## 1
Amino acid sequence: MISELTSIERYSRQMRFGGIGKAGQERIVNSRVTICGCGALGTVLANNLVRAGVGFVRIVDRDFVEVSNLQRQVLFDESDVINNLPKAEAAAKKLREINRMVTIEPIVTDIDRTNIIELCKDVDVILDGTDNFEVRYLINDASVSLNKPWVFGGCIGSVGQSMTIIPNETPCLRCVFEAAPGPGEVGTCETAGVLGPMVNVVASYQAAEALKLLAGKKNAINRELLYIDMWENTNRRIKIAPLLNKVNCPCCRQKNFEWLDGAHGTQTTSLCGRNAVQVSLRSASKLDFADMSKQLSASGTVSHNKFLLKFNVDEFEFTVFPDGRAIIKGTADCEKARTLYAKYIGH
């Protein structure tokens, strides 16, 4: 039985598909990926790629499993919530029971500009399982810097997007979305919700794109931006290929890695004696408190004037300022504060 479990024949149905075949499967078995984030998208990605036989899967996530995750994060169950397990470790435990041929490396850490290169330099493809644009722009910088492909994916409400980025062959993220949306400009899963089936659709597109790349079938990748709304029953394919070398992209054309260099993004400071953390943006924003109040009201109590916005959820109190800076009271943990900021304020 052990020999059957460790035989490449377990992938027989996948190898019979002409697009992959035995040679493609052998490449997949010898390939390596990093999945950045192990939430909704990340768990579906990890599940698909481990079952497909990707030889090495690194899963990086800073968060713990919460009961609200179970609606859409397919590798977790109630015991993970009760045991207060980190998402990366809980996912690795499940995945090792699915496929012992795959090496799973869980890393419980916050992805930032100091570690993104180390996390991605020794893999073949980088996968986006994140829920915030700051990490996506870091992945994009790392991808171009290391000359490694990555697959973008995002979901909010009933809407999902995905595209595949190969440095020097396709437009990068900054060619298509030159700047990250400011805090409060777009909803988050906490403020706008997310439809579970939409997550599965987007992550499945991402996983398929990754398998094409890993199997050596680069010509089969999708070179457009996919936009899907499952509630409104709409699908669009936005042609982005003409943007390559047509825009003066600061990343892939100028090789100016502003997110890796720290010109953009968030920074945190623990406020001594106050059980609070200040989260600020390296490049100031201008918030619309009226719009933010509408989004946040579904999650907690909120009030604002022209000087600041107050928001209470669970045991945490947010004081948000017009430039995007926030003081989060109820924790002295900088990583926890960044997680809360991404969940409710966005970025």
## 2
Amino acid sequence: MNWEQYAAKVLSVSKIGLKYSKDPYAIENYETLEILSKEMLNELPGVSIHKNLYERDIYPTPNISVRVLVTNEKNQLLMVKENVEGKWAVPGGWCDVFETVSENAIKEVKQESGYDVKLNRLLGVFQRERYKDYPTLVSEVVHYFSASVIGGGPLHNHETSEVQWFDFHQLPELSKKTTSKEIQRALHVLIHQLDVEFD
């Protein structure tokens, strides 16, 4: 990552922080990060940024996300309980800028479950709005990976309240973060060692 990308990354962090933070002290710090990163970017020749780079008018593209099927030798799937809905999902989330989908996948598992994992393979690339059973205006492309635990231990964060293993065929009630159809399609690829599936 070069320093221009670093500044843009800091600007993206400030955008996320200002969107989700409720703490006045944190908001003040995110505003400072936004100012400093814009000053850095404005030093580039021919660049003039007066507002957050991620609020500019750009060509609309789908959001990119990751989900990870972490499995064990008992044919169980690692799942996390979402704080917002009180329902379950496989670890994952939105991809951060200037990080690969695999880096994001590993990071999301660690943040949401406490486990360190190695990715084994890509299972599928799905257009998520095709699987949702509720109206959505968000177009999202999700990458499903399989992974194995190499360290760490069960530890939830501010987004999750529980971490548990479930048998493949006895999954709990799912949150809107994932759908049964997506998970079963990715599991089918994993169990039968099929080629990557994609929409």
